[in-house]
Amino acid sequence: MDIIERYLEAVAAQLPTEDREDIVAELRDLILSRVEAREEELGRALSDEEKEAILHEIGHPLIVAARYRKGPDSLIGPELFPYWLFGAKAGLIVIAAVQALGLLISVLGAPADFGRAISQAFHGFFSGGLTLLGALTLAGAIMEHYDIKPKWLTKWRVRDLSAFGLADPAKWGASLAGTEKAKSEWLPKGARVWGVRAETRGAADALWSLIFSGIFLLWWMGVIRFDALSQFTLRSGEVAVAAAPIWSTLYGVILALVAAGMVVDAVTIARGGADRVTWALRIPLAAAAIWLAWRLFDAGWWFTLTQGEQVAKVMGGPANRIGTELLRALHLEGRGLEETAVTLGAVLSWVLVIAMVGYGVSIVQNLWRIATTRAR
Amino acid sequence: MDRELFETMRLELRRGTLVLAVLACLRTERYGYTLRQALAADGLEIEESTLYPLLRRLEGQGLLTSEWREEEKRKKRFYVLSPGGEAMLAALTEEWRGINASLERLL
């Protein structure tokens, strides 16, 4: 086959079938015109090398064919790329935070497995990161190809922009450290302007809450596992933890409450920080959380620990005298199964009591904030 | 002066003017090869791999019409401005003159 036809065949293979014949015919005419002009100039027929030099000037078949493509030239165009980059940065930070938390829990649960936990965390970060980048690129390529322009690309509001700062790891660090500068940056504008002293819940807090709630929800639904929570080691050997029936009874309620909390967190981030709307939304959430904590507290039996033949229930609640139980637990010597169950029962009892009081206080706080802060 | 940077900027500067040049050149009917020669003769070199897809795009946008005809023993595709292309050329020419005048004042 002639060198020119071989070249044209390579171009044709990359072209859409409906236009292929037409484009190739035009390219053939172009190439032959150039060959003829050169031949006229030299007064002789061109060698294959000389023809190839002309084809080189015209371009690689992939490049030439790509220029005829009707769709976009790039996978992610310049308009969409900053959004892709933000999504990638923010997503990778979230994945890193999730893995760090998982690592922390694993290490606390089984310090001896530190090496394995580290390697799992790295593996989780890289596989999660690559999946995220792949998914973002796929979504971006689809948007680019079909020229999809969501409202957030064109109709953005200044008040929503603070969430974009959340992709800045420096701000996260400062926010976590609780520096005054970070606090002032994350606090809602209204609270600063009107001088409200009550501690307000900023967008960064809401984001952290959203991430941790998301991890909890995934764990609660069985999507991810933290082995350290279902099994731990005492000096006397491995202990298996089984949930008491109250957790199955309240499964849906807990799921709904955490999901509702995530929605409020998302609203807080979207509004650039806490305000009267989000404070109001948190009041029924806190009331539901108090009810839930009381149901758990009232149930009195939370977990069952099993170690070989030995079984011990983690119990507490109003039926037990939680103060004296805790004191007894603290004075118990040894780390046997029964002692561990008593300690856990006492600690959980106190955690639930403190949670109920905390949620009660947050209701009063939020009511106070709503009453004393003017609307934005 | 950074020659590489200059080359990039020069290409960027020229890119926007190529459509105007092609439209202007196609007030007279031509096929791809002679169009490229005409543009080169006026100092506007353009690669074939850029010119031919551009012609198809302009035709797709309704600014050019084309027909296959035999000339010099070979079938060639001839392009010429459509009525829509003529109106577009007039509008773009006016815009170009405005930009040119502004730049002349600045330079």
Can you offer a commentary on this structure?
The complex is a heterodimer of chains A (about 375) and B (about 110). Chain A is an alpha+beta fold. Chain A has 17 helices and four strands. In chain A, β3 and β4 form a beta hairpin. Chain A is elongated and about 110 Å long. In chain A, about 20% of the residues are buried. With about 110 residues, chain B is of the alpha+beta class. Chain B contains four helices and three strands; from the N terminus they run αβααββα. Chain B has helices at about 5-25, 30-40, 50-60, 85-105, and strands spanning about 30, 65-70, 75-80. In chain B, β2 (about 65-70) and β3 form a beta hairpin. The longest helix of chain B is centred in the C-terminal third of the chain and has 24 residues, at about 85-105. At the A-B interface, α2 and α4 of A face α3 and β3 of B.
Q: Which sequence of strands runs across the widest sheet of chain A?
A: 1-2-3-4
Helicity level of chain B, as a percent range? Answer: 55-70%
> What characterizes the major β-sheet of chain B?
3 strands, antiparallel
Give a short account of the largest sheet of chain A: 4 strands, antiparallel
Which range does the strand content of chain B fall in?
A: 15-25%
Please state the average pLDDT score of chain A.
Answer: 79
Counted by DSSP, the helix tally of chain B is 4
Write the layout of secondary structure elements.
The complex is a heterodimer of chains A (376) and B (107).
Chain A: H1 3-12, H2 17-42, H3 48-58, H4 61-67, H5 81-109, H6 114-145, H7 151-154, H8 169-177, H9 180-186, H10 189-193, H11 203-220, H12 227-230, E1 231-234, E2 237-243, H13 245-249, H14 251-270, H15 276-299, E3 301-307, E4 310-315, H16 322-331, H17 337-372
Antiparallel strand pairs in A: 1-2, 2-3, 3-4
Helix pairs in contact in A: 1-2, 1-4, 5-6, 11-14, 14-15, 15-17, 16-17
Chain B: H1 3-25, E1 30-31, H2 32-41, H3 48-60, E2 64-71, E3 74-81, H4 83-106
